[in-house]
Amino acid sequence: MAEDRAVAASESEAAAARRRVEALWRIESARIxxxxxRVVGDFxxxxxxxxxxxxxxxxQWPRDGVPPNPAAWLTTVAxxxxxxxxxxxxxxxxxxxxxxxxxxxxxxxxxxxxxxPWDPETVDDDVLRLIFTACHPILxxxxxxxxxxxxVGGLTTEEIARAFMVPVSTVQQRIVRxxxxxxxxxxxxxxxxxxxxxxxLASVLQVVYLIFNEGxxxxxxxxxxxxxxxxxxxRLARIVSSLVPDEPDAHAxxxxxxxxxxxxxxxxxxxxxxxxxxxxxxxxxDHDQIxxxxxxxxKADAIGRGRGAYALQAAIAECHAVAPSTxxxxxxxxxxxxxxxxxxxxxxxxxxNRAVAVAMAHGPAAxxxxxxxxxxxxxxxxxxxxxxxRGELLARLGRRxxxxxxxxxxxALTRNERxxxxxxxxxxxx
Length: 430
What we know:
Blueprint: H1 2-40, H2 43-64, H3 70-88, H4 94-102, H5 106-110, H6 126-134, H7 141-151, H8 157-164, H9 168-185, H10 194-216, E1 220-221, H11 227-243, H12 248-261, H13 264-267, H14 287-303, H15 309-322, H16 331-344, H17 348-362, H18 364-377, H19 385-396, H20 400-413, E2 415-416, H21 417-429
Parallel strand pairs: 1-2
Helix pairs in contact: 1-2, 1-3, 1-6, 2-3, 7-9, 7-10, 8-9, 10-11, 10-12, 11-12, 12-14, 12-15, 14-15, 15-16, 16-17, 17-18, 18-19, 19-20, 20-21
C-alpha cells in the first residue's frame, strides 16, 4: 500500500510539472522567442529552439522537479541548443560568441518582470521588437497577423483559422511563407524608427487587439479568460500609444483595452466560473482603470481626426463602464455606436453585437429579426456565437423548444469548456 501511495504521489507531481510547463508556454513563450530572436538573429530558428527547450522541460521537470526560475532555465537551455546547433553546422561566428556571452545575463532575465519603466527614446522590449518584426511591410497583412498571433499570442493554427474564418491549411501556409520571407530578407529584429512606424502601425495595433481578444474570451481550453495574454496585450498597447502620441488609433486601442480589462475581476467567480455582464458586481470593477480608459479615449478624440473602429468600440465599452446597471445602460446610444462601427469596420460579429444591443433597446423580437438577417447571409456558419445569441432571444420570447435547440447547437460548436457549461446551464433552465 505504501508503495502504491508513493507511485501515486510521484505521478501527481509529474502531472503538476507537466501542467506547469504548459502554463509557462502560454505565458512565457513570446518573451523567450523574442529574447532568442535578438540573440540568434533568426526568427524561425528562435522559435524552434524555444520549442525544443520546452520539450526538454516536459521530459526533465516531472522527474527532477521544476527549477526555481523556470523562464530563465528555458531561455538558457534554448541558447545552449543554439550554440550546439551552430557547432554542428560548423558555422561559428560572432553571433555564437554573443550567445555564449549572453548566458551570463540570466540574472537580468530572471528579473524581466521587474524591468524599469519604458523609456520612449530607448525602446528595450523584445516582445515589441518581435511584433514589429513580424509586421514588417515585406509580408502581406494577413501573414503579418497570422504569424504574430502564432508566435506572440501563442494561438494554435486552428484558433487563428477560426478567428479569421478560413481553413486551417490556409493559416499554416501563411505562417510558413512568412517565416521564410523574413529569413530570406534578413529583416532586422528591431522597433523601426519613428519615421517608419506609420507603415507598420495598423498591423501592430490589430495584432495587439486580437491578442487581447483571445485573452478576454479564450477560444479553447478550461479557462473563461487568459488574463496573462490580455495583460500582455494591454502592456504593449500602453507602450505603442507612448511611441506614437499623435496617433488617435493607438490611444483609442489603449482606451478600449483598459475599459474591457477593468471588468476582469468581476467576470469570474471564486471557482473561475463565468459571470455574465448582467450578473456582475460592478463594485468589483477597477474604477481607476476605467478612468485611465476614459482619459485615453478623450486623448484620441482630442487629436481631432474622427473616431475609427477602436474609438467606437472604446465608446461602447465606456457606455457599459459608466452605467449603474444593465437596465440603466444607454442601449440606444450603443445601437448607434454599433451602426457607426458597421460603417467603418463592417463584420458579421459587429452585426451580431448590434443585434444584441437592439434587443436590449427595443425588445427581443427586434433583436431576433436582426439576427435572422445575419443567419440568412451564412456569414457566421460554424460559430457558436450566432446560435448562442439566437437561443437567448428565442428564450426571452417564450419559444422554448427552439431556444433549447439553438443553445445546444452552440454547445457543440464552442471549444471553450467554461462557455460550453454556461450554454448547457441556459438550455437546462429553459
